[in-house]
């Protein structure tokens, strides 16, 4: 009888463990989803924005077949789009009959890749508009809506000095966009006369204030730098990266065509 009880108890534990594992996995999935959700007070204004923002900053340069073959043989991942572009355009072709030939072509010192450590969104990065309505002497509730009173430009930037800043900014932008799934750009504009139909109620004897903020991502990570060479051996060529260094860097990158709203009554 005791043996049966032990078997029953063991089977019960197995069943509980089996049930707990998928529930735990589901909980982690829900947590991850909630962390990446856009808050309800943050709205996409891309259709209403009177200024047509450009997304050219996010252009991705694809490596050619030859470039892919070259960078796959390097221990350090090469992710800098400008460097990939240079390698795509390289026309160095060792002669197939150059037996015993050796040479090194120096391409310069480059930021090789960027590794992200943090991507945090500040939904109230910069105040860009304030609408107010006074209902102190009113005898019934009033409604107000968002209306952009003047054109506002919001710019992002690196938080410290670094070599080849434009190339570093591009790599950080691509990595932050991939992680957050948000439309990011180092410059975004909200045009004059941009407005939304959403309304906010102002009770009698109250003063309403509607603030609009441009959100931005605070991106932090590390850039790898190195001297890039193309090594020629006979009819073969490979990439060599020497004198590798790393540097921490941060940036503020605005979220394009999104606004965060804060409504208060006093």
Automatic annotation (TrEMBL):
Per its UniProt record, what InterPro entries does this chain match? YfkD
Where in the sequence is the signal peptide annotated?
1-27
Q: Which UniProt keywords apply?
A: Signal
Q: Which gene encodes it?
A: yfkD
What's the source species for this entry?
Oceanobacillus sojae
Protein's UniProt name: YfkD-like protein
């Amino acid at each position: 009888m005791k043996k049966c009880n032990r078997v029953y108890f063991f089977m019960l534990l197995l069943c509980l463990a089996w049930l707990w594992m998928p529930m735990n996995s589901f909980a982690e999935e829900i947590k991850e989803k909630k962390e990446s959700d856009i808050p309800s007070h943050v709205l996409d204004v891309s259709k209403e924005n009177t200024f047509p923002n450009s997304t050219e900053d996010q252009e991705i340069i694809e490596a050619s077949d030859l470039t892919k073959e070259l960078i796959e043989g390097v221990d350090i991942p090469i992710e800098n789009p400008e460097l990939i572009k240079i390698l795509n355009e390289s026309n160095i072709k060792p002669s197939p009959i150059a037996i015993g030939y050796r040479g090194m072509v120096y391409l310069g010192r480059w930021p090789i890749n960027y590794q992200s450590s943090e991507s945090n969104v500040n939904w109230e990065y910069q105040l860009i508009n304030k609408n107010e309505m006074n209902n102190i002497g009113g005898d019934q509730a009033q409604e107000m809506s968002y209306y952009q009173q003047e054109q506002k430009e919001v710019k992002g930037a690196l938080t410290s000095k670094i070599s080849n800043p434009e190339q570093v900014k591009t790599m950080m932008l691509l990595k932050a966009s991939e992680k957050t799934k948000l439309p990011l750009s180092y410059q975004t504009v909200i045009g004059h006369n941009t407005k939304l139909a959403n309304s906010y109620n102002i009770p009698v004897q109250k003063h309403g204030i509607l603030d609009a903020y441009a959100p931005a991502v605070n991106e932090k990570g590390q850039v790898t730098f190195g001297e890039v060479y193309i090594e020629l051996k006979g009819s073969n060529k490979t990439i060599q990266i020497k004198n590798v260094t790393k540097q921490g860097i941060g940036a503020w990158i605005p979220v394009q065509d999104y606004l965060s709203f804060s409504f208060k009554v006093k």
